[in-house]
Amino acid sequence: MRQERTQGAPVAARATTSRAPTDLPTSGYALVVDGQAKREFKTQDSANQAAKDLKRRFPNLQVRVYDAERNRLEQIDLAPA
What we know:
Number of strands: 4
Largest sheet: 4 strands, antiparallel
Number of helices: 1
Structural class: alpha+beta
Shape: elongated
Strand order of the largest sheet: 2-1-3-4
Distance between the termini: 56 Å
Helix content: 10-25%
Strand content: 15-25%
């Protein structure tokens, strides 16, 4: 027979300060990897280049570039070889 688990006192959520920031910038461009903002860029070209380089190295990651001016995320996909 299976025993039921009893729920103890709730555990307080720990503050995580070492995680990557999830706040998106108010100006410029940001590299967003698997839903987390990782780096900020001043130009769209440099953000797109960094995103494509990362996607080439790790094709399973979800890589996007966030445009703060238009408040828009652009998915980065590589063309099949």
